[in-house]
Amino acid sequence: MQEYENKNYIAKKIKLARKQSNLTQQELAEKIGISSKQLSRIEIGAFLPSLITFLKIIDVLKIDIRDFGITINPTKNKLQNKLLKILYSSSDKELELYFDIISVLIKNSKKIKN
User: Fold this and answer.
1) For position 1, what pLDDT does the model report?
2) ∠ CA 43-19-62 to the nearest 5 degrees?
3) What pLDDT score does 6 carry?
4) Is CB count within 10 Å lower at the N or C end of the chain?
5) How wide is the angle at C-alpha 92 spanned by C-alphas 89 and 102, nearest 5°?
6) Cα–Cα distance, 109 to 93 (Å, whole number)
């Protein structure tokens, strides 16, 4: 198993980055919308963060996602990259809203083409 697949590695990486950013657990928790208790559990490796929480953490702490063994192939299309950044930093409710809006737009564009 790769080191970055270990939840203790993830916990230590997040804790170290938080400390290097001079943020308390409370401050980081507020920035990403979780409780400080939940963040504490993530930092000790008791829990893995949800995908949305993980993406918010690495965004706030400026952690390179590649440090966790994840590779992202950015597109050459700047608009696609902007949209991907919005999606990665969105909450579940925002993602549902975006999906509904895009679905309606696609459905209506198909009606116009026919």
Assistant:
1) 45
2) 90
3) 81
4) C
5) 85
6) 24
Encoding tokens for residue 75? 């597109």
For the CA atoms of 6, 20, 41, 62, what is the dihedral angle to 10 degrees? -70
> Token pair of 91, please?
């909450």
CA distances from 46 to 7, 12, 20, 23 (A): 8, 12, 22, 21
CA gap 81, 57 in Å, rounded: 19
Scanning the structure block, which residue is given the tokens 């939940």? 38
Exposure pattern of 80-102 as b/e (b: 16+ CB <10 Å)? eeeeeeeebebeeeeeeeeeeee
Quote the tokens at residue 68. 């966790």
Which two structure tokens, joined as six digits, stand for 24? Answer: 């308390």
- Per-residue pLDDT at 64: 85
Cα gap 87→33, rounded to integer Å: 16
pLDDT tens per residue across all 114 residues of the chain: 455 568 888 999 999 999 999 999 999 999 999 999 999 999 999 999 988 899 899 989 988 888 887 776 767 788 888 887 788 777 778 888 988 898 889 888 776 766
